[in-house]
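Technical appendix A lists one of the benchmark inputs used to test multi-chain prediction within the project. The record comprises two sequence entries:
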Amino acid sequence: MAEAKPNINLGLEGVYFTESSVCKIDGIAGRLWYRGYPIEELADQSTFEEVSYLLLYGRLPKRKELDDFSSQLAEERALPEKTARIIADMSGKTDPMHVMATAASSLSAYDREADDTTRDANLRKSVRLISKLTSIVSSIGRYSAGMEAMQPDGNMGHIENFLYTLTGRRPSADAVSNTQAMFILQAEHSSNASTFSALVTASTLSDIYSAVTTGINTLKGPLHGEADEAALRMLRAIGTPDNTERYIEEALAGKQRIMGFGHRIYKTYDPRARIIKRRLEALQGSASEEIGRLTQIALRAEKLMIDRLGQSHGIWPNIDFFAGPVYLSAGIPVELFTPIFAASRVSGWCAHILEYWQNNRLIRPLDYYTGTLDLKYVPIDAR
Amino acid sequence: MAEAKPNINLGLEGVYFTESSVCKIDGIAGRLWYRGYPIEELADQSTFEEVSYLLLYGRLPKRKELDDFSSQLAEERALPEKTARIIADMSGKTDPMHVMATAASSLSAYDREADDTTRDANLRKSVRLISKLTSIVSSIGRYSAGMEAMQPDGNMGHIENFLYTLTGRRPSADAVSNTQAMFILQAEHSSNASTFSALVTASTLSDIYSAVTTGINTLKGPLHGEADEAALRMLRAIGTPDNTERYIEEALAGKQRIMGFGHRIYKTYDPRARIIKRRLEALQGSASEEIGRLTQIALRAEKLMIDRLGQSHGIWPNIDFFAGPVYLSAGIPVELFTPIFAASRVSGWCAHILEYWQNNRLIRPLDYYTGTLDLKYVPIDAR
């Protein structure tokens, strides 16, 4: 082992592994574009269906293209009976993300095109996955609450139908609009850990169901998708607005990590957090007592954190921080935040997978061996 | 976008992302060590149970430690009823690797320690996964053949029980020994794509069931785990020994990839292929007509390929090339080769995951954006 120790890129931070035209993050300016469109314009003017089309096809659809795409999504909402049974069996017994990953993994068995590896078939499978992952989330929500799953309503848009099949009630316009914004904001974020892991799976020429399941399994981690749940739990633990400063100061003094702040790429205010903060402020007047209180806590915590860690340490609010109260106001329980993240991000996963396969290369880095060599195998009774 | 274009490490080839003491590959000398022990000594003298212990704990077990470990593996063989149902429902309807991933993903719901994230609990979960993934493979084999799953036999070792529950017959000593060697040789191979993807999942502090499911999904690809199936299909397509040279020459002339040759790391003879080739030669005398014929074809193809591409292009036989006839001789059908690979490699996946968590860092590389920016969002009817 005379070789010199190589440079080790821990966490692959700063390492480029591919080119892509799906998404650009400017972490210094705090800007984000999907396929060249600023996130602010998409979040306020577009729909999740349109953004999914944009991500997959690389351009905004014309009217007829969007109508067709939305119809396909609506037609694919029903889950195979065996997939529904998996959700019924597992819900409440384990993390909802495990239920989601297992259900998503089962879908290939009931896709008659499973073996077709053409780009067109993979686009159709992407539509199926985008549609069905949202159905999986509402089914998990229903079964976890001890209720039967609802039949989808083919006349509703993707987000309206989601909230309807989750809550059993026709949702308010505000609930649809805010949930739609969250789906749009979470649909894509370049080669984050879940997308990257999906690409590693895809790079062996495995299939899109396998790659998306990998994305779900990676998103499950508290350092990735589960951060919005953790942030809401903190707001609830703070309890009352007047307790905010004391709680945060104590947490900082104890070197606890404050969930919803700081990001590998953004070294300034997360532009998605800005959009959701604005929606949260707009909600305050009409919100329930709990949401109003959590919103006040969030706004006070944000102000204090920016004072303490913003300019000085580059630790700013990210999208996870404000998501909780927005979701609660739409009737979405905390344990579904991460599954919804996956049901949104699947559009980005599929866009990246389809792009990567156009110029595929097996992703296989190296680890640097630090152990000994040429140990002698000693028979067990002589050890 | 005035920034200079950065260096892009396509496929992360040659990039180090972590240190590890699990496995060393010397791709130039053609050598391989698990935890410092040369693979040749392990393949000939050890067992899969012992190698799994070695990988997880970093040292060879004493007699009592191995007995305890083997007992734990034997006790964990039964599958939860709902997992067995998933296998029964999906087998024959999709790729066996999808069945395996879905079944593995479901296991967390039936692990009473699922939420315990301590190292000790994760070691116990590793034992469960190592034991149950092999049970999943034999169940898939049974259901795919239209038969019921067999009850495990607690008095048999891991490999003997596997072959017994797959075929319904007590296996020959040769079948156990050769299958054992394959399980040992496939148990670990540093940060290959499946292991690396499992680590990306693990690096978000997701859990070991999710990370192992990711490994299965990645191993599924034809550029990774499915290569041994493809190699056997080629031997069968060649048909007769005398057709070997013509077939290979035509394939090379047509620039077809010959499965079972070439490797990202080995630029010489794969040491695992050498071990399995020796076992294949030993089998020839006693083998069936089909195995004898496939073995002759494999040996002639290997000789020709080494002449054509070995020294000149660094393309040498890898383990996948000789695995097929060895498996067939133990009564294992071709569609289970990759699931068996996963049932072996799970020991390496778990060893790497446990090691990585001792010094965890989120794995999140960058992609280089090549698209446009600041496109104007045009309302749909104006497009």
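Residues 27 and 112 of chain B are 42 Å apart (CA to CA). Chain B is about 55% helix and 5% strand. Comparable benchmark entries are summarised in Table A2.
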